[in-house]
Specification:
Number of helices: 5
Number of domains: 1
CATH class: Mainly Beta
Structural class: mainly beta
Distance between the termini: 52 Å
CATH superfamily: TonB-dependent receptor, beta-barrel domain
CATH architecture: Beta Barrel
Number of strands: 35
Shape: globular
Length: about 650
Amino acid sequence: MHKGFQIVGGLSLMLTTGVAAQEYEPATDGDSTVLERILVTDGLTPVAEARSGRAYTVITGEWLEANQVRYVADALRQVPGFSVSRTGSYGGLTQVRVRGAEANQLLVMVDGIDVSEVAQGEFDFSSLLVDDIDRIEILRGPQSAFWGSKAMAGVVNIITRRGERDGFSVRGKSEAGTDGTWLGGLSLSGGGTNYDVALSGLFRETGGFNISDFGSEDDGDRNATFNGKVTVDLTPNLTVDGTLRYVHRDSDIDAQDYSFGNPTYGQVLDTDDEAKTRELFGSAGATLISLDGALTQKARFTFGDTERENFESGARSSWNEGGRYTGTYQASYEFDTPGFLDATHQFTGGYEWERETFLPSHLTDRLSRNSNSLIGQYRGDFLEQVSVNASVRHDFNDAFDDATTFSLSVAWRVPGTEARLHTSVGTGVTNPTFYEQFGYVPSAFVGNPNLKPEESLGWDIGLEYGFFDRALVVDLTYFNQDLTNEIFTSYAGPLPTPVNMDGVSDRQGVELAATLNLTNGLSATATYTYTDAAEQQVAGGPQLREVRRPEHSGSFNVAYTFLQNRGRVFGEVVFNGDMLDLDFSTYPSTRVTLDGYTVVNVGGSYRFNDSFEAFGRVENLFDEDYEEVLGYNTQGRVAFIGLRGRF
C-alpha cells in the first residue's frame, strides 16, 4: 500500500466532507440559531452550500487564525486536489495546481478581483499573507462559464472581513520566531447604522535560509500588505461598496545558471539577486434590489496593477508592469412556482468588459488586448431536494479566437437521509499569456500571435454523507478532465517559441475528505487525493506524467480545546508523494523523480481574557529534508511565539 494512503486510510474513522478544511468556531454559551451557510463563488449569485452541486471547500478565517496559518498557500496544502510548489524560501515563486492542471488554469480572486499577473497569466501565491480574511471559497473543476479565462481548473476566492456595524474594534498581533522572523499586524473595523468599514495592515519579515546548494547566503523576504473595505447603504434598497488592496514585497532569490557550457549549467546558484513587487487592486460597486426583492441588479468596476523589478548585485536587470481593468453588469430575477414541483427559479444575465495591458522592459510601447463577454445563468430548486445551476458564456476576444463555455451542476439532498449527491460538468478556456503571445527576451524566446486558447471539458460526481447527526461528515468525489490545444514551448526552430499541441491530455482522480467534530472539544479533518495527470503526446512519443503533480497526497489535522475553550492545541500532517520535475542541467531537460515527504506542524494557544491571547507553534517538527522544486532547498524546523489582542 502506498505510504500516503496508509497515513490517511489509517484515520478513516475521521474521513471527509465537502468542507475539507476544518471550520474552527469558538464555542458560545446558550442556544444559537444555525443559519444556512452561503457559498458566494458558485456562479453569478450566492447559493446555500447544501444546494451546490460543485466540489467545493470553505476555509474560515477563524480556522486560519486558530491554526496560525501565515500564507494562504499553506492552507491550500490541506485542500483535496491541490498541489503547492514553492521555489525555496518564503517570497520565492509559489505555484498552485488543481487536479493536475497548470498554475495559470486556476483563477485567484481577492474580494472578487482577479489578482493574477498579466504577464504569466497566473498568480504567485508567495505574496498572499493571511491578513484579515473572513473566508476562502474554493471550487474545483471548470468554472469558465461564470468566471472566464483562467478558471479552467477551479477558483480560489479570498473574501476579507467587513466591519461590524454599531461600534468599532481594534485588533492587533505580533509574532517573533527563528530565522530572524517578525510579524506585526493591526486592524480597525466597525461602522454605524448604515455603513461599515474595515482597515488592516500586516508586515512580515524573515531572514530566511539559503535556498541554493551552493554558498551560504540566506534568502529572506519582506512583505507589507494593506487592505481596506467599505459598504454604505444609501437607501434600504441601494448599497454601494469599495475595496482597496496594496502589497509591497522585497524578496531575495537565487538564479539558475543558463550559461551553456558552464559546469553549473541549469543549477540554482547562490547569487545576490532580488525581486521587488508592488500590487495595487481596487473595486467599486453598487447593488440595487427592487420588485419586493425579486429583481437584483449589480454593477462593478475593478482594476489591478502589478509591477515587478529584478535586480542582480544591486543593479536593476529587468522589469515589467501589467494592468487589468474590468467592468461588469448583471441582473437577476427570482420567482416561485408553488403549483409546479414546488419550485423556485432564478434567471441572471450579465455583461463583462475587460482590458489588459502589459509593458516589459525591452519594449517602449505598451501591449494591450480587450474582450467582451455575455453570460447567462439559471438556478432552480425543486421539491426542496433537487438544485440545478446552468450557465453559458461567450467571450469576444480581439487578439485570438472567441470562446463559448457552459456549466451544469446538480445537487440532490436525499430525503430522510444525511446524504447529498453532487455532480457537475463544464468546459473551460485559458487564454495565451502575454509572454506566450508576444514573447520575452527577444534574443532567446519568440512569441506566437497565432496561438489558440487552451480548452477543456471536465466533470465530477460525488457523495457527501453525514453520520451521528453530522458530527462526522464524509465526501468522496471522482473527477475527470481533458485538455486540448495545450500550449508548450517548441525548440524545433532557431529560437524557442510556444505552439498549440495536437491531441488530448487526460486528468482524472479521486478526492476524499472528512471532518469530525465532537462535543468534548476534539475535532479532526483528513484528506486524500489520487491524481493521474498525463501530458499530451509530442510527435507520437510516449505520454508522460505531468511534473510537480504528485499521484498521492493528503493531510490530517487534529485540535483539542480545553479549560472552557481558553486553551487549544493542534497538530497537522501534510503528505506529498513522489512526483516528477525537470532537470535543467541537461539540454534538453530531462525528468527526475522528487521523493515524497511528510511535514508535521504543532501549536497551541491560551486566551487570558476577552482581550489577550498568547500563541506559539513549531513548523516542520521533525526537520524533514525535501524538495518541492528541483534544486531549491526548503524550510527546516522553525518555531514562533506571539500575542494577539482585541479591544
